[in-house]
Amino acid sequence: MTHPHPHAPLVESDRVAGTLYTDPALFEREMDRIFHTTWVWVAHESEIAKAGDFKMAWVGRRPVIVSRDRRGGINVLLNRCRHRGASVCETPKGNGNGFTCPYHAWSYGLDGSLRGIPYPEGYEDVVEKKDLPLQRLKVASYAGMVFASFSEDIEPLEDFLGGARLWIDRFMKQGAGYPIKVQGEHRFRFNGNWKIQLENTTDWYHFPIVHRSWMSSVDAETASMLSIMTDESAVTHALGNGHSVSISVAEHADLDVDDGTEKLQDRFSHIVEELSKDMPPEQVRRIVRSLHGAGFNLNLFPNVAMSMSFFRVLRPVSVTETEIRHVALGLDGGPEIVNRERLRIHEHFQGPFGFGSPDDAEAWNRVQRGVAGGVDMPILVNRGLGREKPNDLGQPTSHATDETGMREAYDMWNRMMTDDN
Amino acid sequence: MTTEALDTAVAELPLDDPRALAAVSLIWREAHLLDSRRYEEWDGLWASGGEYVVPIDREATDFASRLNLVYDDDRMRRMRVERLTGGFSISAAAAARTVRSVSRFVVTGREDDAIEVCSAQILVGYKREETLVLAADVTHRIVFTEDGPRIARKIVRLVNSEDAVTASGFLL
């Protein structure tokens, strides 16, 4: 590592070193000690709902396959043939009986077991198929969120998620009685370090500034819903293990709670009218109140966020390049008009032609370019330090525009990257 | 005229049909306006009720039921123009400079008052020391109104629409 001040820590309580965005050696260490060690999000269960379903994903820089086997189990397999190393799958998603290497046709089952080797005579007394399955990662799910780890002895997923579990449960309530399903995703890249995006999910400070053009394109009710700067109920909690939640619309933090005073937005009146034809008014209200998703952004260290109505998944490509996926969600088995409206809301903000994402990407690229000009200067993450206090669960809490979530993420980063922990 | 998919029967550009030349002329003018970022004028090329789509799934024909990169009706398209010209978007202010070429025209449908033209678009963009290329199959449905030819539908199928797409502040 080439830290300009070898005696200064990379992470302090109110600042981090600029080299965190620029140092290739730090990036290599992050891959080994964070992404190839801890729990990394790879899929939502709706993406691999049926036996034989699979999708390609990444754990850090390693390509993996997430598959559903005939017994209903979820497998996460390194996408690398055990023979001479070719990838065994290059289909982003699909359904099949297994994976066959294109090079010498070694074939593997959905659970990664090696099933067949052509012309096996040459391997007599040399290879036992049972010894050469695709490398399997440890897998666990919580509330439909599938995580994988290269560490066999990693702590249980539920312990790792800890205080975030309450918010994952609350996030899924936007299904309004239906399970959540993935409806598609936008993918784009920006020239910048992955942690610039990690910070952004609980950064409501940037929202009215970077997203002014989006704010001016939505109806007044939606803009007012996100009047975070002046809303004292908009707070961020540090949840431990690098996770944090930033509440933007407090009355939608728990969508099961409804005191009846909230007026449904006029923009959804056509949906209310359609649903009311064969649904009781309480159910219509419950669904329509959930159309913007949950009233918060939950940031799960290191690679996934559950952000209002979508998942944000980041993939570090290099120290200066990051790929982002914005995964659109819908109601599995729910009314078509609702799922279509959710798609339109997603398209409005997200993706390379959305009214929000390109402005985020521009800001993040400007961070990368600016930091490269002065790596010996710190990145400040001190906003709100003077007003941050523990809530009744003991979680450091401050206003949603404060940098409490970033401090939590960098504390975890520091623990994972430092030898004495 | 329901053709949208790329594998539909195609006809050579009917050079004896003045509407075909008018359609191609409109498509070239559109490309010029987009490269020049003259979005207000571009908006004026559209017929009322126009549909502007950049799908993710290249095979899709039912766009409403799936996620797209762009799925604009008149209202969304006008908001998009407002966003790109309003001065509040930092990505629009720092938009890549683009030069695009549209060619390989074939006619994929003809009606009394409309023509459907499929073409290839190659766009080169430049921003901050980087040059990017985006290639797409484009389908235009051009309607002939009292005011002349107008775009009723435009579908831009990027070759890499299912992968990460880079675009900064410009339109396809």
Report on this structure.
The complex is a heterodimer of chains A (421) and B (172). Chain A is an alpha+beta fold. Chain A has helices at residues 24-35, 157-161, 165-172, 194-200, 207-210, 212-215, 220-225, 269-275, 281-289, 336-349, 357-372, 404-417, and strands spanning 11-12, 15-17, 40-44, 53-59, 62-68, 74-78, 93-95, 98-100, 107-109, 114-116, 138-142, 145-149, 180-190, 235-240, 243-247, 296-300, 304-307, 310-318, 321-331, 378-380, 389-390, 396-399. Chain A has a 9-stranded antiparallel sheet. A 4-stranded antiparallel sheet of chain A has the order 6-5-4-7, with no helix packed on it. A 3-stranded antiparallel sheet of chain A has the order 1-2-20, covered by helices on one side. The longest helix of chain A has 16 residues, at 357-372. With 172 residues, chain B is α+β, with helices and mostly antiparallel strands. Chain B has helices at 18-35, 39-43, 74-85, 90-93; strands at 46-55, 68-72, 97-110, 114-127, 130-145, 148-158. Chain B has a 6-stranded mixed sheet. At the A-B interface, strand 13, helix 6, helix 10 and helix 11 of A face strand 2, helix 3 and helix 4 of B. Chain A: Keywords: 2Fe-2S, Dioxygenase, Iron, Iron-sulfur, Metal-binding, NAD, Oxidoreductase. Chain A: Its cofactor is Fe cation. Chain A: It comes from Streptomyces phyllanthi.
